[in-house]
Structure formats: C-alpha cells, structure tokens
Amino acid sequence: xxxxxxxxxxxxxxxxxxxxxxxxxxxxxxxxxxxxxxxxxxxxxxxxxxxxxxxxxxxxxxxxxxxxxxxxxxxxxxxxxxxxxxxxxxxxxxxxxxxxxxxxxxxxxxxxxxxxxxxxxxxxxxxxxxxxxxxxxxxxxxxxxxxxxxxxxxxxxxxxxxxxxxxxxxxxxxxxxxxxxxx
Length: 183
Known about the structure:
The chain has 183 residues and is an all-alpha fold. 48% of the residues lie in helices and 0% in strands. The protein has helices spanning 14-17, 42-49, 78-86, 93-113, 125-162, 172-179.
C-alpha cells in the first residue's frame, strides 16, 4: 500500500515475506506490486471526511500538481557489484597464517629436542604464513575500497528514493551497509 502511494519503504525483512534469512527465494507471501496512484488533494480528503453534499465554494482553486522531473536511479557501478560478491569472503588469512607459524615452530622444536633434523623443514611454513597474511591484507584493503564505493552508491540510491524515484530493492550485502553505523 505504501509503495502504491509513493511512500518510500525502508526495508522489508525476509521473514515478513516468508523467505529464508539470507533473503533469497521468492517467498511464501511476497509483497504484491500495485500501480502508482496520485495522492489525493487536501480538498478531496476534506470532502471525503464530511458526510453529505460537498460544500460549495465560490471560485474553484486550481490544484497545482508538482510536475517535477522524474529522478533517475543511479546505475550500479562495477565496484559495487564486486563488493557484493566479496563482502562475506575472507577472514581466514589470520587463522591460517597463525596455524602455519605454530606448525613451523612446532616442527622446529621437535627437530631440536629429537635427533631428527627433518623437522627443521617445517620452518619453510613460516614464509608461507607471511605470504598468506600479505594476501589477506591486500584483500582487506581492496574490500575496504569497494565498501567505500558501495556506501556512496547506497547514499545516492537513498537520496534518489527521498526525491521520489522508484528504486530497486538492495541486495543483502548493501542492506547490511544501511543497518550498520559507519564512520
């Protein structure tokens, strides 16, 4: 109903439509699409509220409709698409790097306490751990850069919606950006 009258909706949660918590699928009760209707003027609202015949007025005042140019929804940049695909990817670099360091140190300790010099080969895992950490750091920086572009896009879409444009529903990754406070 709000969409039919041009009132912007913030976010319709997945559970309200009977979709999974990730927001995927059609849902058991999707929100129906209605045709856009023109809002009633103040005079029409007053006439509907009063029972009986409409009050007569001397000269009818012309209803001035705001004929503003339609606001265009900004196109989704490639950086935002990239952010949507990698928003929930990663985070394993720290754990894997730490595990590789521990295995390398454990192998070196085993070699030092026993007469088996082959354990020193585990020290080769230490440079691999550093490499994994560097890859994770690079991915984190890229994700932060893409996050900034996604935040800018979400703000542009919110501004377009506030100006009266019909905007598509945001992806779950972009909705998370609107729900979390950002600096």
